[in-house]
């Protein structure tokens, strides 16, 4: 096993790592476009600040890190959907608009799914640098999911299951 020399950056990616890195990057590029749409539709200043912060400090950084790794290993990058133009909230027809509680719910679901995928990538990777990178992604997503939970509680947007009073 001479290819596993203790320097993760020099070790080749196995097929599962390539597939999951490529798929993760493809999903991240799509989520960046979704974030643009959510920002266009949101009217709540706290949610807008959260989305902008998350877009800049989580999604964009994850995209850059995975893209850099794929480029360094010579893997073709997935296509990116086109950016969405900025629009004014009042220009979106009422029946076509996402509402702030819906946006918060959609972002929460994306964070949850992404954390599960990060856990899976950690499990199938043999390169320590990939495991560490996705562990960092997972921790950061957990942090942002908690921030979003607090926003939804403050705004009264959270829909909890029935409370067990017994």
In short:
With 166 residues, this protein is mostly helical. It has helices at 15-41, 45-72, 100-124, 128-155.
What would your notes on this structure say?
The protein has 166 residues and is mainly alpha-helical. It has four helices and no strands. The protein is globular, with a radius of gyration of 18 Å. The model has no long low-confidence stretch (mean pLDDT 93).
What does the secondary structure layout of this molecule look like, with pairings?
Layout: H1 15-41, H2 45-72, H3 100-124, H4 128-155
Helix pairs in contact: 1-2, 1-3, 2-4, 3-4
Key attributes of the depicted protein:
single chain; 166 residues; mainly alpha
- Could you tell me how far the N terminus lies from the C terminus, measured between alpha carbons in angstroms? 58 Å
Number of helices: 4
Major beta sheet summary: none
Element pattern in H and E:
HHHH
Helix content: 55-70%
Output the radius of gyration: 18 Å
Report the portion of residues in β strands: under 5%
The chain-level structural class is mainly alpha
Number of strands: 0
pLDDT average, as an integer? 93
What are the segments in which pLDDT stays under 50 over at least 5 consecutive residues?
none
- The best one-word shape is globular
